[in-house]
Amino acid sequence: MPSYAITGASKGIGLEFIRQLAANTDNTVLAIVRNPKASNINEVASTNPNVHIVKGDVTDPKSILEAASSASTITGGKLDVLIHNSNAVDSATMGLSPSQFPFDAEAVQKMFEPPLATAIYGGLWTTNAFLPLIEKGTLKKIVHISSAMALPDLIKKSGISYAVAYSAAKAGMNVQVAKYAAELTPKGIKVLALSPGWVDTHD
Question: For residues 58 and 126, what is the distance between their CA atoms, to the nearest angstrom?
Fold first, then answer.
């Protein structure tokens, strides 16, 4: 019975991962969400007994450690696949090109904090929290959901100059994932960043 844990599972790509993985009743699927009462994920869990809702905020080290502990109880101390899908942006400034950023340290930090908190800090804490379970799993896979917006060649060819903080955070996440791969591949753990391409995530 393969086990999967997905962060950012209450909507969008994360919720679809839950739906598709739950379709195979042999899978044990853990939906890691900040709000366990979210209607979308509860609707899926209500019709799929192999889906377990686990409270966890990837931007809070204590919270994600508690989520890993809860997951361990459900899976018997192991995990096959971790999918770090959480994402956040400062929507109000997503449309700005870099030359439009203000000479205001606090304002710029506010723009960068949401994607950095989920992609970089959250990616680090989530991976480290669940790593002991992955080490005891069978498949031993860790996947971080990235974006084509983090690829310099695509950015230059497409002329997409906006979403600066989001793109920078995802690019940094890709490097962080490569560092994990360098560390964990010799231990038989596969770590990769996956870009799903353009996805319509609107409900």
Answer: 6
Architecture label for domain 3-194: 3-Layer(aba) Sandwich (3.40)
32-38 contacts at long range (C-beta below 8 A, 24 or more positions apart)? 32/5, 32/6, 32/7, 32/8, 32/56, 32/58, 32/64, 32/67, 32/71, 33/8, 33/9, 34/10, 35/10, 38/10, 38/11
> What does the alpha-carbon distance between residue 159 and residue 139 come to, in Å, rounded to a whole number?
39
3-state secondary structure of 73: helix
Summarised one tens digit per residue, pLDDT across range 181-190 is 999 999 999 9
Q: Is 140 a catalytic residue?
A: no
Q: Known catalytic residue: 62?
A: no
Q: How many residues does the chain have?
A: 203
pTM greater than the 0.85 cutoff: yes
DSSP letters of 144-169?
EE--GGG-HHHHHHHT----HHHHHH
Tokens of 99: 């030359």
**Whose CA is closest to 198, among 160, 142, 165?**
160
Is 162 known to be catalytic?
no
Question: Of the residues 140, 167, 170, 180, which is catalytic?
Answer: 170
Identified catalytic residue from 86, 147, 167, 180: 147
Q: pLDDT at position 91, please?
A: 87
